[in-house]
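1st attempt posting a full record on here, be nice pls
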Amino acid sequence: SLLQLPSLLLHQLRSEKYRKLASCVTGGCVLTTSRMSPAQVFLDINLGDADRAAEVTAAWEALNAHFESKKDQLGLSDATELVRLDEDGRELLADSFQRSHPNKELVWERPRPLLAGRIVIALCSEAPKAAENFRCLCTGEKGKGKSSGKALHYKGCRFHRIVKGFVAQGGDIVKGDGSGGDSIYGGTFKDEAAGLRLKHSTAGVVSMANAGKHTNRSQFFLTLAAASGCDGKHVVVGTVVKGMDILTRINLEAASQDGKPAVDVSIADCGQC
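the predicted structure (as tokens):
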């Protein structure tokens, strides 16, 4: 969390004289901006196919409702909940359920939630322009992009490239497939030298994806392990300070060698902390 600063110091930091010296230490990064942007942003991550998750949840709810309405009639009242049925009990219930729901799938356990959890990112000071772009794309406060006409917002955006033991890349707010993007500055913006000097030495580094020098837009990636090959080529914008378990799940469940996601991973919601 942010260090608490005295009100007088805050006043000084906001003033023209001191604005370039403004800094708040958080998560090993230092945020320095003229606008005193919030030091942390969040991404709520969905992991899995949304349509399939809805189907499975509906099937489980239907079977559970059938169990509650028929358990006395079927002699299953000793079972307090669906998952406690033994093999014979399941066979009885399945036969009864499929007669009344011939096209419904049998789902015996409550499906895993689609929402995997929240990733919190501490923004760094070395690339204030990129950090501000990332922050605004998390909040959606800038409306629509001048160059694309699309919402400048990561909400609903998918991770289109997830390479096992390397990176999870997303943020294409224009096309969703890695071929597009936009920024709050209207298209691409330049690399910041200090941000390029930061290292991708561990999992949880957040960097701008690009198509070469000075082509930053909205696309970004999260490292899933150390990625020294990205050093000096990509502007580091922050580090993950909470939710590393989510990155582990993404690497285990969604990543592939060729980068094609094994399951859908998307941003359910996002904003500033």
